[in-house]
Task: inverse folding
């Protein structure tokens, strides 16, 4: 009986955990509830993914109002894949948060952190699972508002400013999105995504539809930090508490990419977006700009966390590049990279949080010679860094491989060369960490620094291991992404 | 404003009626415009009115901060438990139709409890916002 | 001219949208930026509500006496959007209060100058 209601419980359980945490207030209880809710969400997403692989599409009528009148929760190959990513990161960050939050936040704020964490997770899962365009907006705002709070909890006062800037830009993005949805609603008279797609196919590319496409593109680009709309991202990632950064970097922008994919390929259809409008050209141009400039800016950062934040902007560029190619291989690359970059950045930010906890910061001056004091952590950062570069044998290689294939297939051999070339910039910035940690003389006092606490280290290494594992065993990632790409290109009317 | 006799008397006279009116808006919401949102805001307004006249400490004695925070969480939980009740009675999540012997009564019962949840949360949130903003300058001195 | 008369709500929407965005870009005061954000969001409320209104229509009550009624769905959607807008505004103001406590100013240029002056102060 539970199984058929899993689509609802997937979102409702983390959502219900938040008020329970506020009611109970005890930090320990709050943490236990957050872990329980996120682990449940992970289990639910795995069951749903298996079910989708078996039956195709799962549709769940919220409140038993049949779609398209009621809100429909819809799980297909693409959303099942995203649910697994988001809930897996949630289920790892929640146990990680115990020691990290205890060290970074005052005790009376702990329960609030876990409550907001659960809300954020519920919001992200809701954005992924819902089949209703306006419901996406509501969940987007639930997730975003909780993110603003999570960022503002950072210890540095610049966290407040970062949160404020993200609030302004994020709200503009969400409002643009809702304007686009409003225009589509005026044209089609429906908010259900599947129903909207059917009706739009009859309307074609009239002017309000094009305006809606423009608004939704710009709004979501703000949310997913597409160059040059990424300005909120580096500060937000750099000053948020470590656990919050790990969650945001691994999931938040990815879910926005998912919504963009949903609108491009399910609602508007590849025919309109790819073939009649210059969307691919614009996306490819901006993606190249993102990859090149953000990678170069990352090279010059004095702070390792900020460096990784700029690298995230560049990696989002790889994802949108795959979308811009709009072929089976390109979309496969985009979806695989969503997943691979999620676990890679999750691992990196978790390990960096451990370093920040022990060394008091992740400025490169503080990283000098840490390879000897924190060998396990630094090895993890190096391995995850290899995945960030895309070295063969790591998860990052798989996504870049498909990206190169997609570029070659489209006849853009120079684009394939560019992907390889920009990976060299990634080598340079990962090398900066290796150089500081292993090849520099230890700073005075570095010898007293101990390894990060074991629970934090253990969950971080789960993700590091995943970066390696998914470099060899691609049955889940590539097959899942292929099914999703086929759905997007073929399933859309 | 604590020494203004007119305000004190008018306040004391009005606040009970405001609370009753909130209940009217809440429960008559089935038949006329109204419901949990509006009633919640009116309830919160009555208490904010009290705080403006008699001071924040007096309002905090009547409705302590802990109660307000519990209200915020409790209302959401009431709403969500309506959803779980639908599950328990064999329907989908938030399924009103199965809550009573026939669907129309079920809808009425479901919406009744949902609106109670909304009332509790909305008044809680409004009061919480007021307490946080009003109390900020006093506690930290200046600002 | 005819297009203006029949579509004036859209022109008001665009005006509000542009005014809100302009305030957010042109003003350095953090509270004024939030006011701009609110005006910007208000334009969306109008965009949804205006087409749902029928002149002479009532609330959708099932009764023989009323035949013409407005579409309730946009109203419900915008009620949600208003709540979201209030939550955003409240959170934004709360952050501004904390910024003022941390920096002693709510002018954007002064705050940025304060951070540059202190460099990597932690």
Result:
């Amino acid at each position: 009986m539970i199984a058929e209601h899993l689509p609802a419980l997937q979102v409702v359980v983390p959502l219900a955990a938040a008020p329970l945490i506020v009611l109970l207030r005890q930090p320990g209880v709050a943490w236990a509830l957050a872990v329980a809710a996120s682990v449940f969400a992970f289990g639910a997403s795995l069951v749903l993914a298996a079910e989708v692989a078996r039956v195709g599409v799962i549709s769940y009528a919220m409140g038993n109002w049949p779609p398209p009148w009621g809100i429909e929760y819809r799980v297909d190959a693409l959303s099942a894949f995203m649910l697994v990513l988001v809930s897996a990161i949630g289920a790892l960050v929640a146990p990680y948060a115990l020691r990290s939050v205890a060290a970074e936040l005052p005790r009376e704020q702990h329960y609030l952190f876990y409550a907001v964490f659960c809300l954020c997770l519920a919001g992200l899962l809701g954005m992924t699972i819902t089949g209703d365009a306006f419901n996406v907006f509501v969940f987007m705002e639930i997730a975003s508002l909780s993110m603003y709070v999570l960022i503002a909890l950072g210890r540095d006062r610049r966290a407040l400013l970062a949160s404020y800037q993200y609030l302004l830009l994020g709200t503009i993005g969400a409002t643009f999105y809702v304007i686009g949805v409003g225009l589509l609603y005026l044209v089609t008279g429906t908010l259900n995504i599947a129903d909207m797609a059917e009706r739009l196919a009859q309307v074609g590319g009239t002017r309000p539809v094009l305006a809606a496409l423009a608004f939704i593109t710009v709004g979501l680009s703000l949310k997913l930090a597409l160059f040059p709309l990424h300005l909120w991202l580096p500060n937000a990632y750099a000053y948020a508490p470590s656990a919050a950064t790990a969650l945001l970097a691994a999931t938040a922008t990815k879910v926005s990419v998912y919504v963009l994919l949903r609108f491009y390929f399910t609602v508007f259809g590849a025919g309109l977006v790819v073939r009649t409008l210059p969307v691919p050209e614009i996306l490819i141009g901006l993606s190249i700009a993102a990859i090149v400039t953000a990678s170069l800016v990352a090279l010059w950062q004095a702070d390792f966390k900020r460096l990784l934040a700029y690298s995230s902007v560049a990696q989002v560029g790889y994802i949108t590049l795959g979308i811009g190619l709009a072929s089976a291989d390109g979309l496969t690359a985009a979806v695989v990279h969503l997943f691979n970059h999620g676990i890679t950045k999750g691992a990196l930010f978790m390990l960096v949080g451990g370093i920040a906890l022990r060394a008091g910061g992740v400025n490169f001056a503080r990283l000098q010679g840490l390879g000897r004091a924190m060998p396990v952590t630094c090895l993890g950062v190096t391995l995850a860094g290899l995945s960030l570069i895309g070295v063969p044998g790591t998860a990052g290689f798989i996504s870049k491989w498909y990206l190169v294939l997609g570029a070659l297939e489209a006849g853009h051999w120079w684009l394939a060369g560019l992907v390889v070339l920009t990976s060299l910039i990634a080598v340079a910035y990962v090398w900066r960490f290796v150089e500081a940690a292993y090849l520099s003389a230890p700073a005075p006092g570095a010898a007293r620094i101990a390894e990060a606490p074991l629970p934090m280290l253990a969950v971080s290494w789960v993700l590091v291991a995943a970066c390696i594992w998914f470099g060899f065993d691609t049955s889940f990632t590539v097959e899942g992404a292929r099914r999703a790409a086929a759905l997007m290109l073929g399933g859309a009317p | 404003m604590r020494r203004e006799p007119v305000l004190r008397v008018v306040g004391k006279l009005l606040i009970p009626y405001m609370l009753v009116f909130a209940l009217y808006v809440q429960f008559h919401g089935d038949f006329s415009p109204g419901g949990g949102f509006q009633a919640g805001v009116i309830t919160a307004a009555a208490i904010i009115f009290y705080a403006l006249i008699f001071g924040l400490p007096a309002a905090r004695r009547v409705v302590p901060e802990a109660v307000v925070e519990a209200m915020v969480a409790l209302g959401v939980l009431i709403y969500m438990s309506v959803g779980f009740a639908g599950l328990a009675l064999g329907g989908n999540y938030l399924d009103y139709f199965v809550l009573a012997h026939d669907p129309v009564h079920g809808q009425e019962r479901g919406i009744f409890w949902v609106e109670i949840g909304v009332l509790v949360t909305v008044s809680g949130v409004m009061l919480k916002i007021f307490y946080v903003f009003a109390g900020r300058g006093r506690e930290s001195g200046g600002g | 001219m005819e297009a203006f008369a029949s579509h004036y709500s859209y022109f008001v929407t665009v005006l509000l949208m542009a005014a809100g965005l302009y305030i957010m870009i042109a003003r350095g005061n953090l509270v004024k930026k939030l006011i701009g954000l609110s005006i910007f969001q208000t334009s969306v409320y109008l965009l949804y509500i205006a087409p749902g209104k029928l002149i002479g229509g009532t609330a959708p009550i099932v009764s023989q006496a009323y035949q013409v009624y407005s579409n309730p769905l946009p109203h419900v959607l915008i009620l949600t959007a208003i709540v979201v807008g209030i939550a955003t505004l409240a959170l934004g103001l709360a952050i501004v209060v904390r910024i003022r406590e941390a920096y002693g100013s709510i002018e954007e240029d002064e705050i940025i100058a304060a951070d540059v002056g202190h460099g990597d102060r932690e």
Summary: Residues 319 and 334 of chain A are 5 Å apart (CA to CA). The longest strand of chain A covers residues 58-61.
